[in-house]
Amino acid sequence: MRETLAMSAAPSLRAAPDPAERLGEAVVQALIDEVTLAPKPGLVDIRSRGAHHDLDWTLMCASALALQPTFVELARAGRQTLPLPALRERVGAIGREGEARMLDATRGVNTHRGAIWALGLLVTAAARDMTDRTPRGIAARAGSLARLPDRHAPARTGNKGERACRDYDVGGARGQAQAGFPHVVEIALPELTRSRERGDSETAARLNALVAVMASLDDTCVLARGGRTALAELQDGARRVLAHGGAARLDGRRHLKALDRRLVELHVSPGGAADLLAAALFLDRLQDAPLTTNA
């Protein structure tokens, strides 16, 4: 039943009348694909709340759908011939409006703050140059945009991720974007390809991509809740999953489930890795999706 709901929640790329709307729908599809994927260690999925008490699959899907107008607006901004500094400030304004829309839809629960930042930059960059839909090209354009200042951004947001960056001296979501999303381009997407090429199911390939990101990312969601000890346990556990064949192998699945149990015990959830998986799924989809019309 929930699998049927997942299919109905996912937007159709063919129904959108213009490229900006198709790009926005592709982002929402990636977010729904990410949250539906199971079993994910410590994360909300279609079967479990993971380490969360205030989130579930239904709320995450509702949040993703509520954010579709935000991502469409970001894509439209990217298609305009704005100078990059002006575009950066426009992206910031749309993103802050999107965050307010998210909080309104979820009654104050943070479901997709990190995804608005990461996927917002990527969808803008994708729209900026529709002739180059390669993951590396889009990520590089997004990085150039992320490195520009936004005069209207608040100096401090008070978000847990921001505090974790200061407390543990890590780059967080901002650093990942400014570097051109290396964990997406150099880790998640190559692992996705390798898993597919060796015959793993699509579910296993996506889980392997997620676990590969977890194995090395300084995830501020984990740092904020559990500090460096929890992060080390996460990374060691993720490496064990991959070392035992990944999600398509029996031993790998055993380690995946053990990691899930441990993260739930620690009450930590690798939300940063989940955002980067969604970014990877978005870029993967764009390579083949029809985004232009004859109109």
Automatic annotation (TrEMBL):
InterPro entries: CitG, TriPribosyl-deP-CoA_syn. Pfam families: CitG (PF01874). GO terms for biological process: prosthetic group biosynthetic process. Its EC number is 2.4.2.52. It catalyses: 3'-dephospho-CoA + ATP = 2'-(5''-triphospho-alpha-D-ribosyl)-3'-dephospho-CoA + adenine. Involved in the formation of 2-(5''-phosphoribosyl)-3'-dephosphocoenzyme-A, the prosthetic group of the acyl-carrier protein of the malonate decarboxylase. Belongs to the CitG/MdcB family. This is Probable 2-(5''-triphosphoribosyl)-3'-dephosphocoenzyme-A synthase. It comes from Caballeronia telluris. The lineage of its organism: Bacteria, Pseudomonadati, Pseudomonadota, Betaproteobacteria, Burkholderiales.
